[in-house]
Design brief:
The protein is an alpha+beta fold and about 425 residues long. The chain has 12 helices and 17 strands. Strands 5-9-10-17-16-15-12-11 form an 8-stranded mixed sheet, sandwiched between helices. The two termini are about 25 Å apart.
Length: about 425
Amino acid sequence: MSPTSAPLGIKGKPHRTERGQLSILATELPRLISPCLHDLPTDLQNNEFRIRNRHVDLQVNRRAADTLRLRSSIISEIRSFLSINGYSEVQTPILANTAGGAVARAFATTAVEFPDRHIELRTAPEIWLKRLVLGGFENIFELGPCFRNEGIDKTHNPEFTTCEFYAAYKGLPGLIATTERLLTTLATTTDQLIKGPLNSLPPCEIDFARPFRRLDFIKELESAMNYKFPDLAHENSEAEITKMFKQRQIRLPKHRTLPRLLDRLSAEYLEPLCQGPTWIVNHPECLAPLSKSFVDPETQQRVSARAELFVGGKELVNTYEEENSPFEQRRKFEQQAKYRNEDSGKGTEVDESYLEALEWGLPPTGGWGCGIDRLVMLLSGTDRISDVLPFGNLRNVVSLGSVRRDTADSGGASP
């Protein structure tokens, strides 16, 4: 490459210099392969220029480029790990009549073929993957994009990448063990890369030694708050917890549904305790409508067979035993629809098609999901999700053409 980043072609024979360095003995003058009309800056400080000219940023800032190379290696390692352990990769629909899966606000659109039909971008591939398990694909995974029409911050982007796998006849202990083995493998791979070709990245300081620490959702909250939860399955529990929020002057979420209230308490009291790899287990049933549930003999609350892994105070993995009773799943879907209606202010339908599929007998199944963007942030030592995405977050992407064209003179000292 020349100082202007224009690629040059040199024709000649390979040879070594007097110092033994491998080089080319040119037989013709260098040729300009393609023109570059700008000088390549040596450093970049202007963040707006960096975002709007990512192709330049990646040439100048080695750490930015190494972060994306690490992302590629992490994704390849996950695929390899799952393939070696007997999982088949599949692809499922992104567009459907309902987003399915997670309790999240979906993006809505229409199709030319069905102008009167409401179509949503998926918030998670979960429902589709479990249909494949029903069809006899006992160990499968998908790695791809999902979409949630929610806010943007340092760790959230409306378009994001996830990996989900589903395994027939695997319970929560097996899911936890698989997760810990996978993360240990990824940490080792990352360490080798950072000590080698990707040495512009900081070393990962997180100790992924097994087994990881565990916290019980309800017991830990009750201990931290010195508060006894009401029966969370009772219809008045939402009002009682809202009252407690006001008495203790805890900031209420925008939508005061029971799941949102409990999520806020977890964020306030539990997640800050999870700096090293930590599992939070035994969530209240309303927080995992697609999970099996049971009555916890210690708290006498109805809880889900679920585990969430947090590292650095942020959720990294969500895993649980899938609900396979069509009757229980209907009850949970109806409760989920109620919460979604309170969130969005409009009606939400129960997924009758999935309930009908469950009537064909879903075997006991373990499900697992991990946010790839957040995993790359963790292992690369990056604290902004935009830094692990090739073209930044949605705000960066949408604004690409909305401001006048910058010039390379915007460059300055590297951040």
